[in-house]
Design brief:
- Strand 11 and strand 12 form a beta hairpin.
- About 5% of the residues have low confidence.
- A 7-stranded mixed beta sheet has the order 1-2-3-4-5-6-7, covered by helices on one side. Strands 8-13-12-11 form a 4-stranded antiparallel beta sheet, with no helix packed on it. A 4-stranded antiparallel beta sheet has the order 9-10-15-14, with no helix packed on it.
- The protein has 9 helices and 15 strands.
- By secondary structure, it is of the alpha/beta class.
Length: about 450
Amino acid sequence: MVRITEDLIRKRAEHNECEICSLEEISLHQQGVERIEHLDRWCRDLKILYLQNNVIPKIENVGRLKKLEYLNLALNNVERIENLEGCESLKKLDLTVNFVGELTSVEHLQQNQFLQELYLTGNPCTDYDGYRQYVVTTLPQLKTLDGKIIQKTERILARQEYEEVRKRIIEQQKEYIQKRLKEKEESERKAEAQEARTGAQPGFDGRWYTDINTHQSDSNTKDGEGGKEEKEDEEFWKQQVGYTPESRLEIQKKIEEQNRKKEGVEDDQPKRQRNLFAEDGRPYNVNEAKVDFNLTENEDDNTLQLDVAVFRYMDISLMDVDVQPTYVRVTIKGKILQLHLPEEVRPDSCKAVRSQTTGNLLITMPKATQVVKPLKVKQDKDKKTSKPAEPPTGKARQAFERLEVDPSKSKGVDFAAITAEKHRPAAQPFGTVTSRPVERPNSEDFVDNLDVPPLV
């Protein structure tokens, strides 16, 4: 079975740059996890925890997750609701398709004041008479149960019949517990019989101390064992068993055993050697990482630029760049992106930079052949080269000739006398300046007020 380790958590925390102390969400579904551990010490800031589709039999080691808001334990082997009192911020709990038969264990959720959604669909307790009425009354803080909104009238009616419903629930719960004890005993007897049938016995068959002619019959033994194992696997998958935590655990172990056998067969077979170069030494174009890229040529800088769209939050330690004169190779998590360059480059002058916004990797590779380009001289538009002036012809001379006019005979407007023209009487001739007009005398009832400023 798989255990929760630091490497597993960091692997599933790529979205947080593999940092686990500040991790707020993690998904550990379909990992074959058998026990919840270490998360309450390593990931104190967790708000969302996905643990569905594992073989976890007990809720434990989550009491220190004070910020946990959503816990998903669907498709596990949980038989009892417990150890969640410390999850003060818990709002949603999903226990769909588990083996919760002790329905009275939901009383442990009464201290989770912020719990709003609870899912128990697919558990044995949902078949009890009065199941919904009991849960609705026991947990008044709930808003939805199994995806159905709890109405006020439903809550009032359930509270009125709570005592009778609780007695019925306890009786049905006792019957289920007795049934589970018989299932466990039957599972133990079946496991003992399986061990007795497949276990090694002393003597020639067991080969504890009489491994005679082992080397001579290796090939025949392997062929016989292979056919026997295939027959046993076929019988295992055909047999009918009850849906219990023990049967789910047995199925999970069988799947892991088959996976290990497949991996062992693959390990025994020689791995196909990866060819990155042709027989003549020409590098192949390979994109095992299946990432988008763009190879362009910058004529201004005389360089080749390779833009690789790597994952935005991937750590730099998972990437490696190798630039050679004729090719460039980028290794991303062990998978290779190799390109044959159209021109030779200088590996010692190359530069690789990651974008802080998109995370793309930009590799700048200067070309080996230097191109000499003339400097661009900025020519002044006003300074233009012209031919030497030639003497003007007769028509040109007439076009550029100017007549001299006597200024005294000019009939233009005298702009200096415009101001005086405003005060000039209509009868006076143009150009004469008149004196300042005489002010009108004050009236007899005029009173001079010193506070009023004079008009200018």
